[in-house]
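Lecture 7, part B: from sequences to assemblies.

Below are the input chains for today's worked example.
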Amino acid sequence: MLPGVRERIYAFISEKGLRKTSQRDAIIEAAFNTSEHYTAEELLTLARKIEPTVSRATVYRTLPLLVECGVLKEMDFGRDHKFYDPNYNEHPTHNHLICVDCNKIVEFEDQHMELLENCITKRLGFSPASKSVRIEARCDELKKLGACTHRKAEQ
Amino acid sequence: MLPGVRERIYAFISEKGLRKTSQRDAIIEAAFNTSEHYTAEELLTLARKIEPTVSRATVYRTLPLLVECGVLKEMDFGRDHKFYDPNYNEHPTHNHLICVDCNKIVEFEDQHMELLENCITKRLGFSPASKSVRIEARCDELKKLGACTHRKAEQ
DNA sequence: TTAAATGCAAATTATTTGCAGAAGC
DNA sequence: GCTTCTGCAAATAATTTGCATTTAA
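Predicted structure of the full complex, as structure tokens:
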């Protein structure tokens, strides 16, 4: 867990008049003990290793809090479930490349993309307040080798 | 409907050993009589104006065919339903800006974006075979006027 | 004490699917 | 006639929610 994240969350919790519970603590620990993307279901599994009483409903109720707090980024790539990204703080220019072959999600940053997004957005009469870019692509490894090392479990 | 689209679809249908039915015809007519994005449910409504016997199941079974045929683009913006874009043929560089305030979806094309996408994708070891970019943004009108003219029904 | 949080199970909602009858080729 | 299509209704599956109970402050 990055320094400051825990403090930020607990400040947010107390500001909002919310309460500190063992289940929330476990979910927060689990959510920021990794730098991988995860789904709600995966986070439930991780959190239950810390506090077995955590329920699915509580995970689903806590995730929006962490997103609202600004420490977690919700990502919807059009799969059947959403992903959550705990690296949002380190890399706030959260662009993603998603491989349609192996389901790999690659984070990247690019200054030019950043500039270009801003230009296009303004030109169209919008403000780039909450922009995010995703690129869908195909894995070179798969094309060359017929398989690719990116593929892990179902993502 | 653009010239050639109908021919392309029926060629696809016969190649695959599929059949021409009044329901499919109605769905195809409805799907390409507009240049707007639509959901499956909206397409059902449109198709039923042409052929009232069209069922929801048939719409859901026909949409993937049209996508596979290459005449329709499926877009998932992380809303609760998918959108379908019949303009795909005219503007194959289907980039989208989605307003998080008014839900407006704006299509745009940009050569620089195109180039940049290709560069980034290759740099990361992928091929830009099926890329698409979406920018989430906030509506300037809303910010200035407290309302915006983009907002139509719920999208 | 009292408002917030929890777990459970039921509800929601877009989409998918099994099946028996209808229809294209 | 044989296979594909269709509508219907039931199934799926991620997420949400109502409610009675528990618990933090």
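Note for the exam: Helices of chain B lie at 5-15, 22-32, 40-50, 56-69, 111-123, 140-145. Keep this in mind when comparing with the next example.
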